[in-house]
Amino acid sequence: MKVRGGYRRAAVTGGSAAALILALAPVSVRVATAAVAIPAASAISQSDKAQGAKAHPDLLAEFGGAVSGPQAAYVEQVGKTIAVQSGLSNARGDFTVTLLNSSVNNAFAIPGGYIYVTRQLTALMNNEAELAGVLGHEVGHVAARHSAKRQQAANRNQIIGVLGSLLSGVLLGDSALGQLGQRIASQGSQMLTLQYSRTQELEADRLGITYLKRAGYDPRAMASVLESLARQNALEAQLRGTSNRVPEWASTHPDPASRVRDAQSLAGKAASGATNRDVFLSRIDGLVYGDDPHQGVIEGNRFTHADLRFTFQAPDGFYLVNGTKAVSISGASGKAQFSGGKLGTGLVSYIDGVFAALTDKGQARIRPESVERATVNGLSAAYGVARVQTSSGANEVAVFAYDLGGGNAYHFVTITRSGGAAVFNPMFKSFRRISAAEAGQVRPRMLRVVVVKTGDTSQSLARRMAFADGQLDRFLVLNGLQAADKLVPGQKVKLVTY
């Protein structure tokens, strides 16, 4: 989470930058497409270039900014190589390929030749062909004009933040109050995406595989990277103790396992084409893995921001997901989000502004019954609770804010069933400043490529992983290995270390 500037309302509309994203989206979502036929794109139009150029800076800001240096240059090289196979342009300079500084497994493209992949998803890959396959999939969405087809259906299917969808569906169950969840999601959520039908996802897979073949890569890489995503999603669910699927708001890539078999069938079983595994591993060595300390770090259920000098801890049974502008907190008994902005004239007016931002136009203003002042770990604080009646019953929306001085404030917004807001009291009380010494102890995790030595096993190498839990499982998934696989001296593998 990186807070800059004042408190803002982020509109979620079909014309926003987020609405342009062509992501590797859930295949289980089926949304009716418009009946009007839209031909495949044969070139990058001037209007698409202008549209992409306008959206690009906003997307960089929304997804953590661009990674620079040799790793980014390598991803750009591979992305342009695969993009020209689409026939949208033969000029490599017509494509802009960006490695994003985001800890979310994600890749997407927008009209105008703009292609994006996060460092987290790149770290999950095991060869250059997989990187080319993911980027080719996204280019395939552009070439098939899936964005235009989805926008034709936008009048029937509103584009919303997926956290908002989760909140309104699980806790609120009311179309009017569902706007509240959408507002919470739009305040800093970096996880806004169009969702495609299974047919569109399969079409993008097919095009990506075609591009792999044209570029001389092993087309089976599409299936292997989808399998890695499926295993990573299952592992994250296992470690969090949730269902065997990462909640949609936690990743724009819900379980892709159902597409693995289709990709394998399209690619064929015979080995053909290059994978460039060793080159790929050497070029991504040193990537930041997981949270960037400059955007805050999650350790278990604790969030610490070294630059902004604060920390807080989610209640037991809750887990956190760090976004570019906000931290989401999720548990069975409630949902919350943490963000911040300019204090303005004081905490009372600040809290009033947060509640105002949660209220959609035309809806009754959500107001707290009162705003109470408090002191938390030496910080001036205040909180308000609003009770809202919905078709599914009574719910409570709480805003708890802190004055950190220097004109800056931070706050939690929580949603629970009526009488349930107190579940977040330990979190509210845990928020505190940290010392320079504590801030100095926050270290980034790094992806390191090592060469297997005689006597090394998956178990021995996994003990070097910078995690307190699931070390062996994390090592196996990260390297696309199974428990029964034997390591060979001289083989390169990935580790996550401090």
From TrEMBL:
InterPro entries: LysM (IPR018392), Mito/Outer_Membr_Metalloprot (IPR051156), Peptidase_M48 (IPR001915). Coiled coil: none annotated. Pfam families: LysM (PF01476), Peptidase_M48 (PF01435). Residues 1-34 form the signal peptide. Keywords: Hydrolase, Metal-binding, Metalloprotease, Protease, Signal, Zinc. GO terms for molecular function: metallopeptidase activity. Its cofactor is Zn(2+). Residues 240-269 are annotated as: Disordered. This is M48 family metalloprotease. Residues 448-495 form the LysM domain. It comes from Novosphingobium clariflavum.
